[in-house]
Amino acid sequence: MSIEAAPRSDTERLLDIAPASWEHPADRIALQTLRAIPGFDLLISKFVGAWGERNIRLMFLANAVLVGPKQYPRLHAAAERARRSLDIQQEIPLFVSQTPFFNAGAYGVDQPFIVIHSAALDILNDRELCVLVGHELGHVVSGHGLYHTMLAVVLTVGIRRFPVIAAAGLMPIRLALSEWSRKSELSADRAGLLASQDPDDCLSLFMKMAGGGRSSEGQLNLDAYIEQVDAHMAEHGVNSLFSLVSVMDASHPFHTVRAAELKRWHDSGEYTQILEGRYRRREEKGADESWRHDANDAREYYAAEAKKVADSVSDAARAAGTEVSEAAKVAVTEVAGKWRDLQGKLAEKLNRKD
Fold it and tell me: Which of residues 237, 265, 281 is at a domain's end?
């Protein structure tokens, strides 16, 4: 039931690999759309001006330990393995913060850094730690740190730190940031897989993030979790409207969705092509063509998502009766309008590229 992967004594070093090789097209297009929102540039300038690099680092690192050969050596070794696989020459500080809640994040503006919650160290083995750090390194080299930092601050302090932007003006930016953040996780998940080069370790990480703990040692079964992922995705057409509403203001997708998306990318053959050396290099030209390819892929991705939502609303309406059916028509119209607007923005950008 699990993804088949040959045992590896070491990982392939993906020399000069560009983040565009693993970035999810919906991530790249969601960020383009985010940047086009009125007021977003103003928010960035106010954010950087109000906080600054030094204050941002103090906010996250006041109670954290810098990882190194003598501090958390197990995590340090996993990070070095991930850095080698992704051929990252830049030294990116890694910290551990004491908290019972499992999480990790890449933050910063000009000087990015990574924070791992201590709870992760309690339940992850060395290979899963490599996936986790590789995931965060993917965020860093894709330039996600600034926007993740902004989202963390916006979710924490709201509009109190941004009086120049009214609450009504901040809400669409907050929702757009959350939408992009969820798509950026799909990109970083791919980076985590490329760092560890063991698909089962990635799926095991999702399983432990979903329901792991100190008491789960020897109590979890990866094959059973993959069956759960497959069952969830088989029912996703029925429950996609619920899923859309549930994660609208969340920074991460459901773990089952992330696992399914990563399996789909692995099975598509793109992952294997990268391991064979067929990937984009950092200095490679052709950015316009890649942007156009991303736009086409994103159209297909969002169109499929829109269809799932519309189908789920229609199914729910048929089950509930005529009164709900009328409300469902309105909901479908609004959802369809949302995706048409997105496609219109993409088409406009593509026309400007020509």
Answer: 281
| Whether 262 and 313 share a structural domain | no
Q: How long, in residues, is the chain?
A: 354
Domain assignment present for residue 169? The answer is: yes
What domain range is 266 assigned to?
A: 19-212+220-281
Identify whether the C-beta of residue 303 lies closer than 8 Å to the C-beta of residue 340.
Answer: no
DSSP string, 281-329: BTT---HHHHHHHHHHHHHHHHHHHHHHHHHHHHHHHHHH-HHHHHHHH
| Helix, coil or strand: residue 164 | coil
Radius of gyration of the chain (CA): 21
Considering the domain architecture, whether residues 101 and 234 belong to the same structural domain is answered as yes
Tell me how far apart the alpha carbons of residues 62 and 59 are, in angstroms, rounded to a whole number: 6
Tokens 């995931």 found at: 135
Residue 300 has pLDDT above 70, yes or no: no
Residue 25's DSSP bridge partners are none
On whether both 131 and 272 belong to a single domain, the answer is yes
What is the model's pTM?
Answer: 0.77
Q: Can you tell me the mean pLDDT for 59-68? A: 87
The count of structural domains within the chain is 2
In this prediction, residues 320-341 reach a mean pLDDT of 49
3-class DSSP assignment, residue 113:
strand
Domain boundary among 281, 298, 325: 281
Q: Look at residue 217 in the predicted model and tell me its pLDDT.
A: 80
Please say whether the beta carbons of 127 and 192 come within 8 A: no
Q: Can you give the pLDDT at residue 336? A: 46
Question: Which residues are registered as beta bridge partners of 17?
Answer: 281
